[in-house]
Amino acid sequence: MKWIVGLGNPGPQYAKTKHNVGFMALDELAAKNGIVFNQNKCKSVIGEGVIDGVKTVLIKPMTFMNLSGEAVRAYMDYYKVQLEDMIVVYDDLDTEMGKVRLRYQGSAGGHNGIKSIIQHTGTQTFNRVRMGISRPEPGFAIVDYVLSTFPKKDGDKLEMMIQDTCAALEFSMKHTFEQTMAKFNG
Hints:
Blueprint: E1 2-6, H1 21-32, E2 37-41, E3 44-51, E4 54-61, H2 68-79, E5 86-92, E6 100-105, H3 112-121, E7 125-132, H4 142-146, H5 155-171, H6 177-184
Parallel strand pairs: 1-4, 1-5, 5-7
Antiparallel strand pairs: 2-3, 3-4, 6-7
């Protein structure tokens, strides 16, 4: 079984913001694979299904970004799942807009959702798909930037990034994360 955690903030006011690309990617992955988010448990909205023959659980924490680790820990404790079967999908300021980068360990890099997951799991070693949103122009507050929507000019890059993320996640079902990194980190 694989479990994929997309990071974002609940509520319609955040739905299209840069900080919610993790939710956007999971919504697209669910749509492509006939998975419905129909369960509310472990501080999350959850959808279960099969992707490429592998039982897969899609998880969108409803704790707000900065407390994402609470939902991850709740799911781990309740279902006794393994951390090595988890992939976290989230926005990354240090990755160029539209690019996808995969990692299996590292610091939070200033991302509060990742910081919370590290705190609640006790490790920096877990699979990650970082979706690039680039950094804001100098003088633009980070919090305002990540909670803003994508400009129209980035629409094609956003769509391609979501499709690339879904392709990487689907590929990871039948391949190791190292093989997936080799293929999708290009």
